[in-house]
Amino acid sequence: MDRVDPDDGLHGTLRNLRNFDEAGVSDDVAAQVAANLVNPAQVARSGQFPYRFLAAYEQAPPLRWGQAFDSALQVSLANLPALPGRSLILVDTSSSMTSRGFSARSTMSPVKAAAVFGVALAARGEQVDLHGFADGVFRHTVRKGASVIREVDRFVARVGEVGHGTRIAESVKATLHGHDRVFVISDMQTFAPGPHTGDVTEVVPRGTPLYGFNLGGYRRTAFDAGAPNRIEFGGLTDATCRMIPLIEAGRNADWPF
After folding, report:
1. Which of 42, 160, 236, 257 has the fewest Cβ atoms within 10 angstroms?
2. In this structure, are residues 155 and 119 in contact, taking their beta carbons and an 8 Å threshold?
3. Are residues 41 and 118 in the same domain?
4. The domain containing residue 233 runs over which residues?
5. Domain identity same for 12 and 122
């Protein structure tokens, strides 16, 4: 192998970086691959979102590709759709979110995958209030343009800071202040609604969209998913970011609905 064809597609490149190293590609070829990774036109054409770059970064030797991935991930922020208004993002940092891979083919922990969502939106410049929660809550501030890789690592390092439970309703109640939408990213193994735990369905006003992302396949939902403005997704993928504006456009009868 003595060259890399940019038309092979960025997705294929991301999947094969470890193979490039194992094949012993030269530094010149590695530099060509890195240049493709950070090419804004190439990243835009690929439509890849930040999660895809971080997932590939987890699988590739960081010494050779780390700087390229950091730059490419920042470029990929432009692929995220805009979310008007203010968004509250709550990421579950309980013990069960750190003890396994995000999927059968991934070694990334669920809490790290969840953190990418909030950190990327904040780094892009969206109006995001990002919090981690367990028995309590902590706020995680991300400045516009910050390194997503570094901020995700900093967020994950705070696991355990507020306990190890999954108190969704209390966490939403403590952080919701006039936001236009609420995201709860969790394995949903939360305490059942009761007089001492609250009910997330009632904490969020009926006119405010509440999106749950169930990363654990837990059967019981934490709120009345399926009711107006109450939506739960099974898992978290790149397509998630595309779906939110479409759902809200449909609710508001905006184009393309």
Report:
1. 257
2. yes
3. no
4. 83-251
5. no
Task: Give the SS3 label for residue 55.
Answer: helix
Distance CA 71, CA 91 (A): 25
Residues 70, 109 share a domain: no
Count the neighbouring beta carbons within 10 Å of the beta carbon of residue 226. 9
Average pLDDT over residues 91-96: 93
Measure the CA–CA gap between 118 and 90, rounded to whole angstroms: 8
Check whether residue 87 and residue 67 sit in a common domain. no
In tens, the pLDDT along 125-155 reads: 999 999 999 999 999 999 999 999 999 999 9
For residues 172 and 117, state if they share a domain: yes
Whether residue 72 is found in the same domain as residue 163: no
**Residue at a domain's end among 49, 78, 107:** 78
Residue 90, domain member (yes or no): yes
Given the DSSP bridges, would you call strands 137-139 and 127-133 parallel, antiparallel or unpaired?
Answer: antiparallel
**Confidence category of residue 177, pLDDT binned at 50, 70, 90:** very high
Closest CA to 91 of 143, 130, 142, 135: 130
CA distance 7 to 52: 19
- 149: alpha, beta or left, given left = phi > 0 and alpha = psi -120 to 50? alpha
